[in-house]
């Protein structure tokens, strides 16, 4: 009989977990508290509790109690995959803003924002310069009378359109770039990143340059912000010192700025209210999870947390790869190390000691995208073998190493292998520009391009030689 797996949450990682369970012959049941997407979905079903069975040490089974339309039900599952993510509880730190209770205007968390019409002819303050806060400030600036964007530490802002019009992630996120970055001392990497970021516009002149340039903070993706700042539509300000009835005072300036609406783009916290703290305990914005997935102390590895990670790259393929590995563990194909070994690794990761090379991630849950995924792919024998491919399929090897590290690479081999992966990799640039090349132009052959291909091949040989030394 197939193992029954309870999947909590029908978001992107929940759907990936369903697919991976089905691929491995498991029987998933997905619980989703909303009436939106979610094998077997149970919409508008709240998971009240997930508890270990009395015989957990022997069976590893869980009792899942749910509530649907006022009716409580209980079911037994062989394993549980928690896919609720980290955008669960809006973080609204009102205590950090003296006077907010006296404010007569409107304030709300960015999660409640739906449409910019609310800002028409208003003076708007957006607190927090992450991607959400920046997007809201830019949208508001088209309708509002004035928009302030408050940031405590600044941020690097990059355009989605990178060198030569290529998508930024397809240029930045390659195995070659990743290997190159991780081989350099961190100060040099930070200098190169600062130089690259400032090549679009000088962040210092726009009041955006990060105060801490040693630890990497998630960059802000926004194509419009510099243009809105230079035209005076968005004003960058430091942190809020005090909130008054109809205005705010920013730090380092005594002037009061009239404000009608305050948007708190101050992020989220996460929790697992349906789990006992003895199973998963959240401390300092992270949980003690082996490989960011399995509680290290459980005698039976039958509970996995999927998607509780912030890679410098796409979360969707990261969650999918986590699910592929976790399902193999739940099925018993992959054995985890002893608890003591896993706990030691978790504690070392929590210390967040800089290695001195590559990027230094400053926040909990942040990690290197390619390095982390390769770690999981290696465990399920799905990581592309560049050395072998160089001998059998050199064109593919070049595309994998120098080209975008797209999820097609993760399906070339191993469980869940896709026969169309190679062709998808070799034609990904064609699909990328199909949407933009609506007018076909004739391009003359370039000698430089031909020489560049030869050089790239030689560089690949050198890189692989160094890697396998």
Task: Give the key terms.
alpha/beta; 469 residues; FAD/NAD(P)-binding domain; 20% strand; 15 helices; 32% helix; globular
Detail the poorly predicted runs. Answer: none
What is the count of β-strands? 26
CATH topology assignment of the largest domain: FAD/NAD(P)-binding domain
Give the CA-based shape: globular
InterPro entries: FAD/NAD-bd_sf (IPR036188), Flavin_mOase (IPR000960), Flavin_mOase-like (IPR020946), Flavin_mOase_1 (IPR002253), FMO-like (IPR050346)
EC number: 1.-.-.-
Protein name: Flavin-containing monooxygenase
GO molecular function: flavin adenine dinucleotide binding; N,N-dimethylaniline monooxygenase activity; NADP binding; trimethylamine monooxygenase activity
Helix/strand layout:
Blueprint: E1 4-8, H1 12-23, E2 27-31, E3 41-42, E4 45-52, H2 56-59, E5 62-68, E6 71-77, E7 79-82, E8 89-90, E9 106-109, E10 123-127, H3 131-140, E11 146-150, E12 157-158, H4 168-172, H5 175-182, H6 186-198, E13 220-221, H7 225-230, E14 234-237, E15 240-243, E16 247-250, E17 256-258, E18 261-264, E19 268-269, E20 282-283, E21 286-287, E22 289-290, E23 294-295, E24 303-305, E25 310-311, H8 315-331, H9 339-351, E26 366-367, H10 369-379, H11 386-392, H12 394-402, H13 421-426, H14 428-434, H15 447-467
Parallel strand pairs: 1-2, 1-7, 2-3, 7-24, 9-18, 10-11, 10-18, 11-14, 12-13, 25-26
Antiparallel strand pairs: 4-5, 5-6, 8-19, 15-16, 16-17, 20-21, 22-23
């Amino acid at each position: 009989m197939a193992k029954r797996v309870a999947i909590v949450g029908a978001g992107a990682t929940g759907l990936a977990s369903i697919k991976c369970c089905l691929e491995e012959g498991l029987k998933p049941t997905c619980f989703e508290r909303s009436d939106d997407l979610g094998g077997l979905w149970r919409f508008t079903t709240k998971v009240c509790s997930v508890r270990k069975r009395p015989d957990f040490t022997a069976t590893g089974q869980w009792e899942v109690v749910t509530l649907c339309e006022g009716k409580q039900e209980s079911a037994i599952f062989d394993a549980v995959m928690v896919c609720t993510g980290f955008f669960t509880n809006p973080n609204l730190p009102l205590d950090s803003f003296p006077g907010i209770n006296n404010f007569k205007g409107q304030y709300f968390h960015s999660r409640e924002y739906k449409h910019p019409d609310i800002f028409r002819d208003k003076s708007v303050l957006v607190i927090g310069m992450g991607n959400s806060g920046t997007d809201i400030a830019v949208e508001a600036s088209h309708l509002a009378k004035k928009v302030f964007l408050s940031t405590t530490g600044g941020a690097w802002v990059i355009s989605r359109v990178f060198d030569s019009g290529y998508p930024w992630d397809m240029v930045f996120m390659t195995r070659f770039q990743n290997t190159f970055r991780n081989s350099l001392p961190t100060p040099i990497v930070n200098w190169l990143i600062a130089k690259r970021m400032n090549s679009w516009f000088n962040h210092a002149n726009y009041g955006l340059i990060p105060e801490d340039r040693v630890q990497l903070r998630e960059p802000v993706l926004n194509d419009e912000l510099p243009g809105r700042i230079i035209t005076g539509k968005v004003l960058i300000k430091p942190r809020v010192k005090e909130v008054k009835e109809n205005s705010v005072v920013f730090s380092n300036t005594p002037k009061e700025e009239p404000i009608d609406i305050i948007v708190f783009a101050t992020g989220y916290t996460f929790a697992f209210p349906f789990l006992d703290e003895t199973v998963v305990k959240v401390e300092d914005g992270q949980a003690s999870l082996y490989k960011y997935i399995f509680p290290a102390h459980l005698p039976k590895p039958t509970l996995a947390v999927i998607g509780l990670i912030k890679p410098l790259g796409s979360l969707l393929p990261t969650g999918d790869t986590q699910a592929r590995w976790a399902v193999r563990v739940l099925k018993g194909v992959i054995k985890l190390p002893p608890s003591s070994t896993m706990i030691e690794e978790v504690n070392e990761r929590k210390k967040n000691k800089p290695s001195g090379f590559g990027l230094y991630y400053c926040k909990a849950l942040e990690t290197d995208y390619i390095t982390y995924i390769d770690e999981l792919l290696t465990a399920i024998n799905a990581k592309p073998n560049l050395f072998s491919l160089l001998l059998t399929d050199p064109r593919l090897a070049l595309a994998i190493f120098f080209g975008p590290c797209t999820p097609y690479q993760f399906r070339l081999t191993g469980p869940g292998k896709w026969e169309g992966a190679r062709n998808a990799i070799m034609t990904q640039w064609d699909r990328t520009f199909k949407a933009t090349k609506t007018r076909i132009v004739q391009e003359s052959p370039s000698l430089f391009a031909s020489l560049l291909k030869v050089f790239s091949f030689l560089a690949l040989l050198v890189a692989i030689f160094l890697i396998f030394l």
